[in-house]
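On clarity, I found the account of how folds are encoded harder to follow than it need be. What matters is that the chain and its backbone geometry are given together, residue for residue. I therefore recommend that a typical entry be quoted early in the introduction. An entry of this sort, consisting of the sequence and the corresponding backbone structure tokens, reads as follows:
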Amino acid sequence: MTMERVDMKNDVKNLKLYELIINEQQKQADRHHEKINFYTGFISLIFAGLITGIVNSSQNTRFEFFLFGPILIFFISELAKNGTRQMYRVLLEKITNRAKIEQELGLTNKKYSKSIAKKYWKNEAIIPTRYIKDLIASDSSLSFVNKRLNMGLQCEANKLFNAFEIVSVILFIFIMKEIFKNLLGPISLFSISHLFMKAHH
């Protein structure tokens, strides 16, 4: 078997592998996006229930029960950041796998086909230049993944879940204030009446 046939056979294998990786990358991207939507929807539902409860509360409302809301939101937000971050890591790893196959297929070369006379963008490969530069800037695929783990869509997701955490802390403080207000109200009233009774005696 000549070297040319071996190369063609390897190219066919790599093309099949390339197609598989692209499909897996797309599926992982969809899963990552769906997970962000799931956590966002779940936290928003808790927020809605908590705000509705606070708005419709009365003087006799036991605000202690509302404390579970902000705590649950904070806990789920942390869980969401860690969960989506791990899914994003898998997505980035699939991107590095794809990049390796693209290089094997010669898609990153400027002269990827001698049979075609390039009439425009002669100094560019099929793969976008910015994408290639990002890959070259990393020492390894692991370095590439770690560098971009908190970038892109995951960066926006982290900001969203951080915002949920900040609001949950504000709500927690507000609820604690209402609890102390309800506790100190009767005590203050009792103290005033007690002093009044003593003054008359």
In short: The longest helix spans residues 3-55. The CA atoms of residues 29 and 91 lie 6 Å apart.
